[in-house]
Design goal:
This protein is mainly alpha-helical and 455 residues long. The chain has 6 helices and 4 strands; from the N terminus they run H-H-H-H-H-H-E-E-E-E. This is Desmin-like.
Length: 455
């Protein structure tokens, strides 16, 4: 800085305008001093660190926004899986309804077959009852036929016996008649009776033939009647037996059909039970998956709520940092205004001195200020401008640079500007039940800084 003042002194010693170079030197010194003060002060270091932290927080906030606030594909994936599971459940429900409908249809067919089977059983019982009812008549007819056959045989035997007896009697009578006639003819010479006997024999033969013919016709008529009756009963028995055989065949067919239907029904019931068990297991698996997805969704909501709370906390930290940065910026602006006033006083002093030594002394005084600025938070910097060859036009400059609540005293009176800022922090958090909870905090900050110099 002294080298710069020496160059400015040489330039002033030239033929150019003194005022122009003094203004140029003033601007150069002021810029160099401001840069030096701002570079080496702890406030500037803290401001830089706060700005870096602010940038890092902004980067993290943007990353969190991009990561959690943008719609992700996780919910879409869950929704697609839920839709797929619902579609599978709907298909299973339709298949279950179809199986139940098929079961009901088979149950209806089974009921019809049961009714037909019961009708066949009733017909069989009725036929058996009819057979049992006809059996005494058939037995009686058979017994009567057998009795009549035996009676016919007996009658035939008896008729044959009677014929033989009658023939023997006739022969015996004829022998007796011939013997008597011979004795009579020999004894008394009786008249010839052979013609009369022959007539009597012919009459007896006619009567016997008529009786035999009548008996044959009567027996034949009786036998024909019995044969007709027995044939009728045999036809009835044959028809009943045929009906019984047909009914037995129908019953056997119905029993086979019933057995096949029972087997098919058991197979269908087993298939329905297996299907129900399968669907029950699948529904349990789907329910477990849905519960797992709900738990995962709940944890995601909790994590999202936690991240939102962290994001809100980061926003609050960011706002607090911005407020603090604004406060330090005001302080820096106050320091700039103070340095500007110091430089203006130095310009006035340089104009009044009018010599290179005054400029050198002023530069040395400013260097002393720069060397002393940056003390502790509650300390200050002090330097005396004057003495030397210049004689000390400015008695002293005393300044304090520190933490909050720092005051600045100049030889020239300056107003201290205090700014009060009220900040409202609104925190909004989304809970697990998708409700929004918000709370509001109000904070007031007082910012003090040097006011601008009045021209």
């Amino acid at each position: 800085m002294r080298r710069a003042h020496w160059q400015c002194g040489n330039a002033t010693a030239g033929s150019r305008d003194k005022a122009h170079y003094s203004h140029f030197c003033e601007r150069t010194d002021r810029a160099h001093d401001a840069h030096t003060v701002f570079s080496y002060s702890p406030v500037a270091t803290k401001v830089r660190s706060l700005e870096q932290q602010n940038k890092l927080l902004e980067t993290e906030i943007e990353a969190l926004k991009n990561r959690y606030l943008k719609p992700t594909g996780l919910r879409l994936l869950y929704e697609e899986q839920l839709q797929e599971l619902k579609r599978l459940a709907e298909q299973m429900r339709i298949q279950r309804d179809l199986a139940i409908a098929a079961k009901d249809a088979m149950a209806g067919q089974l009921e019809m077959i049961k009714v037909k089977y019961e009708e066949a059983v009733e017909m069989r019982k009725k036929a058996e009852l009819d057979i049992e009812a006809f059996r005494p008549d058939v037995d009686a007819a058979t017994a009567a036929r057998i009795a009549l056959a035996k009676q016919l045989e007996n009658l035939e035997v008896e008729l044959e016996f009677l014929r033989r007896v009658h023939k023997e009697e006739i022969e015996e009578l004829m022998k007796q008649i011939y013997a008597a006639h011979a004795t009579a003819a020999d004894a008394y010479s009786l008249p010839d009776l052979s013609s009369a006997i022959k007539q009597i024999q012919l009459q007896y033969d006619d009567i016997a033939a008529k009786n035999l013919q009548e008996m044959d016709s009567w027996y034949k008529s009786k036998f024909d009647d019995l044969n007709n009756k027995s044939s009728k009963h045999v036809d009835k028995v044959r028809s009943v037996r045929e009906e019984i055989v047909t009914a037995k065949k129908d019953i056997q067919n119905k029993e086979r059909d019933l057995d096949s239907l029972k087997t098919k029904n058991e197979a269908l019931e087993a298939q329905i039970r297996e299907t129900q068990e399968k669907y029950r297991k699948e529904l349990e698996e789907l329910q477990a998956r849905i519960e797992a997805l709900q738990l995962e969704l709940k944890s995601s909501k909790q994590r999202t709520a936690m991240l939102l709370r962290e994001y809100q906390d980061l926003l609050n930290v960011k706002m607090a940092l911005e407020i603090e940065i604004t406060t330090y910026r005001k302080l820096i602006e106050g320091e700039d205004s103070r340095i500007t006033s110091v430089m203006q006083s130095m310009q006035t002093m340089s104009l009044m001195s009018g010599s290179i030594s005054v400029h050198s002394a002023g530069a040395a005084g400013v260097a002393g200020i720069v060397d002393k600025v940056g003390g502790g938070p509650d300390g200050g910097a002090a330097s005396g401008l004057g003495g030397g060859n210049g004689g000390g036009l400015l008695n002293g400059i005393t300044s304090g640079v520190g933490g909050p609540g720092t005051t600045v005293d100049y030889t020239q009176e300056q107003a201290v500007e205090k700014t009060e800022r009220k900040t409202v922090l609104i925190r909004t958090v989304k809970t697990e039940d998708d409700t929004l909870e918000s709370n509001t905090q109000e904070k007031s900050y007082s910012i003090s800084g040097a006011a601008d110099d009045e021209e």
